[in-house]
Design goal:
By secondary structure, the chain is α/β, with parallel strands linked by helices. Helix content is about 50%, strand content about 15%.
């Protein structure tokens, strides 16, 4: 083995003979560095950080003994990277146990048996190398899974933004501003107990703050002028609806991320003085997660162009928020916001690197599906594909009543410009005891059921004309167009649901 490729071992012993013996045993396979006491050993570790593969450490030494060295290594977390074998003539169990308690991985007695010393050194270095590889693999998988989870949240939230006529970058800006505010709160106000893990979960959950808007009629959601009081009341329902949607999850609703998302969805329009909605919470009744997202959402709404307004400048937005024109906020949070304001745009730009590409929903979902990264199950892949198909289909449909029937949950989501016009509720779902058919005799539901029963895997699209009695009691001739979603299971092709629309004859195009 060439000298340049030898691993380095640090021998720490105040007796020159012991150092010489160990050097003779190890020098054929390893580069050996010697230290005469604990202080010298620590200096070498500082100078050669990351280069020491193993330390052989005597216990009884002047200036700083071996136990003191082990204690320092343990406090500084060096023992996780530099394994230590104690070398000593002491054989009492108490002595040996103390060494292991302080982080030593092995214990070699003097006088030295060259073969025993060499083999234990080899074994320890090999074990730590394997542990390092495993640790790196786990870290990579955790990081990849976290990235996948974040991208999944972004895909779903961006679908809502797409319908809302806003750029998907709104999602990432909300997350970044929330993260900056919470990091500032963590530094200035430790009493809020904001850990890095909590900040990460809250910031990711922030992307889902407006998912309830999926049920708001498009003509209200994208109205260019001022909303009427009645229309504003409809808009306000999105907070409670978002909370209800997450509460209804079949899996994962106990996860911390989902709990934060529910808080944020429901309460990000609450205000410190109790003038917000939907529950009129006051002060610290509002969870800090919702408080931070509320302020982030207000700022980004001010500096962004909307169908009903032009974008304000950064300076104007800060002035409006400080002046109370956008409602009252937690004074601690406001202090952090004002302190961070000068650097806000720069930090958003830095943390939004490649954001435009990141929030291309179709490209993003394709990359996730093709990558098949750790933690991305077949069910998740299927859901992603289904959401992408729905986004494409529904973006092309503007008139009529749109329906999205989910076979597994036995639920129909009705939307579109004409849904409320013809007397449809937004959601009709089967309860625990009754099926959808038992709860509703709506012809649309019955037709959907008939499609599912009659269609074969090769049949994915159906268009037909029928006489249809709408919930308002009027019979109309209409066209029904639908697409059936199928699973991609090679062993069993299952029906997942139906997407389509009902178009009254008078509205046919």
């Amino acid at each position: 083995m060439s000298a340049s490729k030898k691993q380095t071992i640090l021998v720490v012993d105040d007796t020159a003979v012991n150092r010489m013996v160990l050097s003779d045993i190890l020098s054929d396979e390893y580069e050996v560095i010697e230290a005469r006491d604990g202080l010298e050993a620590l200096n070498i570790l500082h100078r050669k950080e990351g280069q020491i593969a193993l330390m052989l450490l005597d216990v009884v030494m002047p200036n700083m003994d071996g136990f003191e060295v082990l204690a320092l290594l343990h406090r500084n977390q060096w023992s996780a990277n530099v394994p230590v074998i104690i070398i000593s003539a002491e054989t009492s169990s108490t002595y040996i146990r103390k060494g292991f308690e302080l982080g030593a991985v092995d214990y070699v007695n003097r006088p030295f048996d060259p073969e025993v010393v060499l083999q234990r050194v080899r074994n320890t270095i090999t074990l730590f190398a394997k542990q390092g590889i495993l640790r790196d693999l786990v870290a990579d998988q955790v990081a990849e899974r976290e990235k996948t989870n974040t991208l999944m949240v972004d895909i779903l939230s961006t679908i809502v933004e797409f319908r809302n006529g806003e750029s998907g970058l709104h999602v990432t800006r909300i997350r970044i501003i929330t993260e900056l505010l919470l990091e500032a709160m963590q530094r200035r106000f430790p009493e809020y107990d904001l850990t890095p893990s909590k900040i990460a979960n809250i910031s990711n959950a922030a992307a889902l703050h407006d998912i309830g808007k999926i049920i708001i009629p498009e003509e209200i959601l994208n109205k260019p002028g001022r909303l009427t009081p009645e229309e504003f009341e409809v808009i306000k329902t999105h907070s409670a609806v978002g909370d209800a949607m997450l509460k209804g999850l079949h899996f994962g609703k106990e996860e911390e991320l989902v709990e934060y998302a529910r808080e944020i969805c429901r309460w990000h329009h609450e205000r410190w003085d109790g003038e917000g909605y939907p529950d009129g919470l006051v002060g610290d009744q509002i969870p800090v997660a919702a408080q931070a997202v509320a302020l982030a959402d207000v700022y980004d709404a001010l500096v962004s162009e909307r169908v009903y307004k032009a974008a304000y400048s950064h300076e104007k937005a800060i002035s409006m928020i400080k002046g109370g024109e956008c409602g009252a906020f937690n004074p601690d949070l406001m202090q952090c916001f004002v302190d961070e304001a000068d650097n806000l745009n720069e930090m958003i730009e830095i943390r939004s690197d490649s954001a435009a590409k990141l929030f291309d929903v179709d490209q993003l979902s394709s990359e996730l599906i093709e990558r098949k990264s750790p933690g991305l199950s077949d069910k998740t892949v299927s859901l992603l594909k289904r959401e992408r198909t729905k986004l494409v289909l529904f973006s092309e449909m503007t008139e009529g009543v749109l329906f999205d029937y989910d076979y597994e949950s036995d639920t129909v989501l009705l939307s579109g410009r004409d849904a409320s016009r013809y007397g449809y509720p937004q959601i009709m779902a089967g309860g625990e005891q009754k099926s959808l058919a038992e709860m509703s005799e709506d012809p649309c539901v019955m037709l959907i059921r008939e499609y599912l029963e009659a269609m074969k895997p090769c049949d994915s699209v159906l268009s037909m004309n029928v006489d249809y009695v709408f919930p308002d009691g009027v019979r109309r001739s209409c066209e029904i167009r639908s697409t059936v979603m199928w699973s991609e299971d090679e062993e069993e092709c299952r029906k997942l649901g139906v997407l389509g629309r009902i178009l009254p004859a008078g509205d046919l195009q």
